[in-house]
Amino acid sequence: FTEVPVLMIRPQMAKEKIEGCHVCTLVTPGEPQVLLGKDKAFTYDFVFDIDSEQQHIYQTCVYKLIEGCFEGYNATVFAYGQTGSGKTYTMGTGFDVNPSLQEQGIIPRAVHHLFEGIQSRRDRAQEIGIQAPEFKVSAQFLEVGHTKKFDLTF
């Protein structure tokens, strides 16, 4: 089990811009560090600023986890933060059923990566004339809020 602390600063929502809210974070150039206000600095393994693309976040933090699944390892992605901090945006579990490819979050990318990887491994086995590998995929989606756990698995 390896924990990799990551910070993703989400873009401001339209409502925040209209209300004149200001971004109070500053990413230290070339360092995985964020400044909050003028005097608090926090360091992580990775820091993604407001303009970071979802694909880059996925490639950096999740891609290898999914590849590890093909070697028999389990993978967990855990998003933590206060209400409105960007967990839904980053994970890609919002209400927009047809987000652009650029806006897709971690979960849709991971599902696509996983099933594309399964199919390519089956195709390769067929091409070289060996028995196709078997895969068992199970996923669980949980939401924890206000000391209550909600199982979102469908």
UniProtKB/TrEMBL annotation:
Alphabetical UniProt keywords: ATP-binding, Cytoplasm, Cytoskeleton, Motor protein, Nucleotide-binding
Transmembrane segments: none
SMART domains named in the record: KISc
Alphabetical GO biological process terms: microtubule-based movement; mitotic spindle organization; spindle elongation
Cellular component terms per the entry's GO annotation: microtubule associated complex
GO molecular function: ATP binding; microtubule binding; microtubule motor activity
Residues of the Kinesin motor domain: 1-154
Subcellular location: Cytoplasm, Cytoskeleton
Amino acids binding ATP: G81, Q82, T83, G84, S85, G86, K87, T88
SUPFAM superfamilies, per the entry: P-loop containing nucleoside triphosphate hydrolases (SSF52540)
Family to which the UniProt record says this protein belongs: Belongs to the TRAFAC class myosin-kinesin ATPase superfamily. Kinesin family.
Name the UniProt record assigns to this protein: Kinesin motor domain-containing protein
The organism of origin for this protein: Xiphophorus maculatus
